[in-house]
Design a protein that fits this description.
This protein is of the alpha+beta class and 432 residues long. It contains 13 helices and 18 strands.
C-alpha cells in the first residue's frame, strides 16, 4: 500500500492516479482517517503524560483533601486513556481497509488508458510464419495429436480443466526445465513453492481472497487459499523480516501449480489452454533496494525475451496502460506471442496473445508484508519487489503448437527443447 503521509501530501496526484487506473478508491477518506488517527495518538500521548505527572505528584507530601483530588483525577485519566486507546484501536482497521483500495502510483511514462487495447507496443521480435495451408488452432491440434483432452477434463471437474497426455507431458516438463536452466544461468535461486498460502499473504501481494470478484480459490474455514502464482509464495517468503542490505538484490524463481477461478472469463480467444483454472508456471521474483528496481525490471523483461527468442516464437513487447495495471504495479511489460489460432475477420492470419508479464511493484507489497532492510543510516526502510513470468506452460505450449504445425498435421519441436523432450516432432495419431 502507499504510505499514509504520502497520500496526504500528494492527495491530488493520488486521486488522479486512481482515475487513470480506472479504479474505485476514496483517498479523501484515507486522509481524514489518517488525520483522525494522528489527533487521537497526540491526545493519548497527552493523557499518558498527565497520568505520569499525576502519579509523580502522589509521591509528595500533601493533605488528605489534595490526595483525594489526585486519586479522583487519576481515575478519570485512566478512563480517558482507555477510551482513547479504544478509539485508536477501532480506527486502525478502517484506515488500513481504505488505504488498501488505493493502487500504487503508476510510472509517469506508462501510457494512460482504460483497457488493454490501449497498451503501447514498443518492440517486435520475429516475423509471423506465413502458412501455405489453413492452420489449425491448438485445440484442434491437441485432439488430432492426442496430447490434450479437454472433454474428459470437463467431465471430471468442469469447464477450463484438461488432461495433458503422451508427448504433451514431456513437452511441459521440457518447457519448465528450459526456463529453469536459463534462470540458473542468470543466478536465480530455484524453489518449488507451496500451493497453499494464508489469506493475509495473498492480501499483502495484492490478491483479494474474498468476494465475487476474487480470482482465487479459498479453502473454507482454514483462512488459506490455493495460490494463483508463485509470486504469492515467493513474496511471502520474507514477510515480517529485515533483510541484509549487502545481500540485495535477491533473485528467486519458483515453480508452482497455479489455480485461478477466471470468473467471467469467456470469449473465442479464451478457449483451450489460454485461460484455464489450473496450470504450471515458473515465476521470477526479486527483492532489491529502491534505486535498483527500474534497472532490474528491464533485466526481467530481457530474460523473458531471451526465453521466447530461444523458442523461436514471434512476439511483441507492450507497455501496459494505467487501466490495465494490477493495483500493486508501478509499471508492467507484457510479452505477447503470435498465435495463428487467434484468426478472425479483423486478423485473418492470427493475432498476438499475452504469454508473460513482468511488474515493478516498488515498495507497495513490501509495506503490506512488512519487508525491510537496514540502510547505512541505521534506519529500516522498505525493499522494492518485482515479479515476472519466466514460462506459463499452457500459453507457451499453445503458441508452440500453433506456430510449429506442419501441413501433414504434425508439430515440430523447437531445437532448444529437443534434447529435453527426447523427440523432434509430434505426429498425428491414427484414430481407431
Amino acid at each position: 500500500m502507499l504510505d499514509y503521509k504520502f497520500i496526504k501530501d500528494n492527495l491530488d496526484a493520488v486521486k488522479q492516479n486512481i482515475i487513470n487506473r480506472n479504479m474505485v478508491a476514496d483517498a479523501d477518506l484515507v486522509v481524514n482517517l489518517f488525520d483522525e488517527r494522528t489527533a487521537l495518538t497526540t491526545k493519548l500521548q497527552q493523557l499518558q503524560q498527565k497520568r505520569n505527572e499525576n502519579a509523580a505528584s502522589m509521591k509528595g507530601k500533601m493533605d488528605d483533601a489534595k490526595r483525594q483530588e489526585l486519586i479522583a483525577a487519576g481515575k478519570q485519566l485512566k478512563d480517558d486513556i482507555a477510551a482513547a486507546e479504544k478509539e485508536l484501536t477501532d480506527i486502525g482497521p478502517k484506515l488500513e481497509e481504505a488505504a488498501r483500495k488505493i493502487p500504487n502510483m503508476a510510472n509517469p511514462e506508462a501510457p494512460v488508458g482504460k483497457v488493454d487495447t490501449e497498451n503501447l507496443e514498443v518492440k517486435k521480435v520475429g516475423t509471423p510464419h506465413k502458412f501455405t495451408f489453413i492452420p489449425k488452432d491448438h485445440v484442434e491440434l491437441g485432439e488430432s495429436l492426442d496430447i490434450i483432452d479437454f472433454d474428459r477434463g470437463t467431465k471430471v471437474y468442469g469447464p477450463k480443466f484438461y488432461y495433458l497426455k503422451n508427448e504433451a507431458v514431456f513437452l511441459e516438463q521440457a518447457l519448465i526445465m528450459y526456463a529453469l536452466n536459463i534462470l540458473r544461468k542468470h543466478g536465480f535461486t530455484p524453489f518449488i513453492t507451496p500451493d497453499i498460502a494464508k489469506q493475509e499473504v495473498l492480501q499483502g501481494i495484492g490478491f483479494n481472497p474474498r468476494g465475487n470478484e476474487s480470482n482465487v480459490y479459498c479453502i473454507e474455514e482454514e483462512g488459506t487459499c490455493l495460490v494463483a502464482t508463485a509470486e504469492i509464495t515467493l513474496g511471502g517468503y520474507h514477510s515480517g523480516e529485515i533483510l541484509d542490505k549487502s545481500k540485495l538484490p535477491l533473485f528467486y524463481c519458483g515453480l508452482s501449480h497455479c489455480f485461478r477461478r477466471e470468473a467471467g472469463a469467456a470469449g473465442h480467444f479464451s478457449k483451450g489452454l489460454y485461460r484455464v483454472h489450473q496450470f504450471d508456471k515458473v515465476e521470477m521474483f526479486v527483492y532489491c533496494l529502491p534505486e535498483q528496481s527500474d534497472e532490474l525490471h528491464e533485466k526481467l523483461r530481457l530474460i523473458e525475451e531471451e526465453i521466447f527468442t530461444g523458442l523461436g516464437l514471434p512476439f511483441r513487447v507492450v507497455d501496459t496502460c494505467t487501466g490495465d495495471l494490477g493495483a500493486p504495479a508501478y509499471r508492467k511489460w507484457d510479452l505477447e506471442a503470435w498465435m495463428p489460432g487467434r484468426s478472425d475477420e479483423t486478423h485473418p492470419d492470427g493475432d498476438y496473445g499475452e504469454v508473460t508479464s513482468t511488474s515493478n511493484c516498488t515498495d507497495y507489497q513490501a509495506r503490506r508484508l512488512n519487508i525491510k532492510y537496514k540502510d547505512d543510516d541505521g534506519k529500516n526502510k522498505y525493499v522494492h519487489m518485482l515479479n515476472g513470468t519466466a514460462i506459463a506452460v499452457g500459453r507457451a505450449m499453445l503458441a508452440l503448437l500453433e506456430n510449429y504445425q506442419n501441413e501433414d498435421g504434425s508439430v515440430s519441436i523447437p531445437e532448444v527443447l529437443r534434447p529435453i523432450c527426447g523427440f523432434d516432432k509430434i505426429e498425428p495419431k491414427v484414430k481407431k
